Amino acid sequence: MLKLIKKSILIASLLPTIAFAQEETATMKFKFEDKNPSGKVFIRYNLYGPYITDSIQVAKIPVEFKIAAKNPTQVTISYSKDGKADKNTVLADVRTIYVENGTATISIKDSIKTASITGMPIADKYEHYLRHIKPSEDQFAIIKNEYDALTNDQRKDLTYTKPIFAKQDELAQVRKKLISEYIVENPNSLFSTHGLRGIYHLLTPQEFDRLFNTLSIENQNSSVGVMLQDFLKASKIAGIGQMAPDFTQNDVNGKPVKLSDFRGQYVLLDFWASWCAPCRAENPNVVKAYNQYKPKGFTVLGVSLDSPNGKNAWLKAIEDDKLTWTNVSDLKGWKNEASNLYMVRAVPQNYLIDPTGKIIAINLKGYKLGDKLEEIFGNKAK
């Protein structure tokens, strides 16, 4: 039996095929122009569960790798010529592809990035999608290089990061336009649903509804399509202009706290978790805004998606990150009742609520939170 998880596989004629006989299988054949190839190919994918990571020792030609593929599956492949890397190494020569039932031949001359892929229609369709959005992706790569060039101290200073993030926001609008065009031109494409999922947070409910209804019925009813319908429902329940749904959860001392208790103030409803690295990275921005605008009528209500056995980690994160505002949680992880009420599917996620209880902004991260509060409070905050 072929064991995929946490195991390297030596590819040769010994590769078992019987295990896949009863299910749809994606076969990836790696061919190298180098007559004496060496090193390892790394493969990472998610089969509706934890990521599966494997490595292939390039010992003989052809090199083959098989995975169960009942549905189109995203696979990240990377190549280490010297073979010294391991599955946890971040390699520069990396590429994301899509595979499905059938055989893809991946011909490598110098790099995985420039390899040609033949024999797999879904891979061709993905390349077509990537070509359509390439203008924005190229610019995003430039911006990423600018950010990567900053020192650790500079990355904590908005003087350096704000111009970069502002460019990123402008580019997000370019991506939105390109993906919207692709959806209209390719309503039957799997990547129209994936593209819409990637830009939903940039769309008004009306724009979202129009693009979703452009999709084929098959795409609308797919697993991603059902998820998109949830996003649309969320925008109607907890979108900008809607009254923030009320809820009650216990604070760190077990005292019940209602969102509506904060009426009369501007409230940042902040969904996060102690185990969420992006949340923890965002916390200093929220702390800074809270300390600056608290005297002017601004506060934060933190809702943690920590697990039933995660109370100690939650309390420690509050202390370590100096989150001195009210923090609540029912400690049910992703089943947190407040997060489900707001249909939160990723953290960090936040909602800025005005003194009447109306949502006026969503996902104010980085410099955006400070800019929005400055817009609201003006000279009163100085």
Task: Please describe what this structure looks like.
Strand 8 and strand 9 form a beta hairpin. 27% of the residues are buried. This protein has helices at residues 121-148, 152-155, 158-185, 190-199, 205-214, 217-220, 223-238, 277-293, 311-320, 337-341, 367-377, and strands at residues 9-10, 25-32, 40-46, 51-57, 63-68, 73-80, 94-99, 102-108, 116-118, 248-250, 256-258, 266-272, 298-304, 326-328, 349-353, 359-362. The radius of gyration is 24 Å and the shape is globular. The protein has a five-stranded mixed beta sheet with strand order 1-4-3-6-7. Strands 14-13-12-15-16 form a five-stranded mixed beta sheet, with helices on one face. Strands 5-2-8-9 form a four-stranded mixed beta sheet, with helices on one face. Helices cover 37% and strands 23% of the residues. The protein folds into three domains: 9-119, Immunoglobulin-like; 124-238, no CATH class; 248-381, Glutaredoxin (3-Layer(aba) Sandwich). It contains eleven helices and 16 strands. With 382 residues, it is of the alpha/beta class.
What is this entry, summarized?
The chain is of the alpha/beta class and 382 residues long. It has helices spanning 121-148, 152-155, 158-185, 190-199, 205-214, 217-220, 223-238, 277-293, 311-320, 337-341, 367-377; strands at residues 9-10, 25-32, 40-46, 51-57, 63-68, 73-80, 94-99, 102-108, 116-118, 248-250, 256-258, 266-272, 298-304, 326-328, 349-353, 359-362. 27% of the residues are buried.
